[in-house]
């Protein structure tokens, strides 16, 4: 807070002669400052589900990146900090958030139980819970296994019905139990059609075990279009659809990765059918909260008091027909910042939209790896920290510290920063040189990144940096 604003709020009080009076005054001022920095509890922007009339908070809590207890060593398993999850869920509900999105696949299978524990402490009518049929593994493709996954979701979430159920990440490829590669259509049929599980879910909706049926989309656009055609024909009715939407993917998704689809197409297809959209990855796994310094300068020149992340959240929440924008809020400061953004939402103006399209072009031209750090590729059977490797590589690009030519004046500094930062952020035994290109990760990546190819590229670069550095060090 500016000193001038501080004095205006507190009236420029004179110094008290009594130590006790000074202490009391200080406590009062601290309390007022605290109140000033708290988001409002009654101004959350709400959106109505046209099918059910649900009033859904525009900000949805994504339970994918829950806080963990501190580890003693890096190899210790992740343990969710349930006490912190409870506190953050309580705070979110207190401030108007009522949509909580989880999955059997999140947090190495532990998210649903943690979410259920936190939500069950509140009245059932105070929240909507969304989860997914995440039957990615061929062992879960049987009718019985998929049904059991759904029943486990009810059990872990401690509910009698699911408010919003999604077919999880349709459009991807897979391998069957015999190691045979399946294309996107074969994969969709194996997960939902050959076993009759989609028809069974429709029956569960009729029986009241779920209230809204939809899907989340990653991958082959032909599958997305096919499911919407089924909706048009009345074969299946989709109550909502979850898509990736942000100002970078709006026009550049397929340029960044030819396997992806621009968000403008996905949004418009839902909008013309009046299907509510739930938005995932408004920050692209945090990448749009950690934009390069020159982009930060541009944004701060436009809105000095706004966070970098708030630009992306405002963009995602502005389009008509967006029912909810999900955010994986690991820390309380993320939650508080997003609450300020959506309590209430200030829609993106036409000028701001044009500005963000310029920013998107700037970021696209950096050519980073399109990893959202969703961790679907983890755990790697050979111990690699795949998201960590990509994160460090992208960070160096965004900061302008990726070593290029040895003739550059900045080469030695960039080389040192890259190698030291690599060892600090990713333990040696989990770095790219340990990739054996087994391909186990490929079918799990929603962004359809050729992970083994990227690992090989980074490994070659690192080895070249080490060799070049050794020669230079000897020469000096």
First-to-last CA distance: 50 Å
Order of helices and strands: HHEEEHEHEHEEEHHEHEHHEHHEHHHHH
Number of strands: 12
What is the CATH homology-level superfamily of the largest domain?
A: NADP-dependent oxidoreductase domain
Which percent bin holds the helix content? 40-55%
* CATH fold-level topology of the largest domain: TIM Barrel
Low-confidence stretches: 1-35, 470-476
| CATH class category label of the largest domain | Alpha Beta
For the residues shown, what is the average pLDDT?
88
Main sheet: strand order? 3-4-5-6-9-10-11-12
Number of helices: 17
CATH hierarchy: architecture of the largest domain: Alpha-Beta Barrel
Question: What would you call the shape?
Answer: globular
**Structural class label:** alpha/beta
Summarize the biggest pleated sheet: 8 strands, parallel, barrel
C-alpha-based Rg, rounded: 24 Å
Count the domains: 3
The percent range for strand residues is 5-15%
Written description of the protein model:
The structure is a single chain. This protein is an alpha/beta fold. The protein has 3 domains: 2-37, no CATH class; 46-365, NADP-dependent oxidoreductase domain (TIM Barrel, Alpha-Beta Barrel); 386-475. The protein is 44% helix and 12% strand. It contains 17 helices and 12 strands. It has helices spanning 3-10, 19-36, 82-94, 111-119, 143-157, 184-193, 197-206, 221-233, 249-256, 263-271, 293-302, 308-317, 332-341, 350-364, 386-398, 411-425, 451-475, and strands at residues 46-48, 55-57, 59-62, 99-101, 128-133, 162-170, 174-175, 181-182, 210-217, 240-244, 277-280, 322-327. The strands form 3 sheets. It has an 8-stranded parallel beta barrel, surrounded by 6 helices. A two-stranded antiparallel sheet has the order 1-2. α3 (82-94) crosses α4 and α15 (386-398) packs antiparallel against α16. The protein starts with a helix and ends with a helix. The relative contact order is 0.09. Residues 1-35 and 470-476 have low confidence and may be disordered.
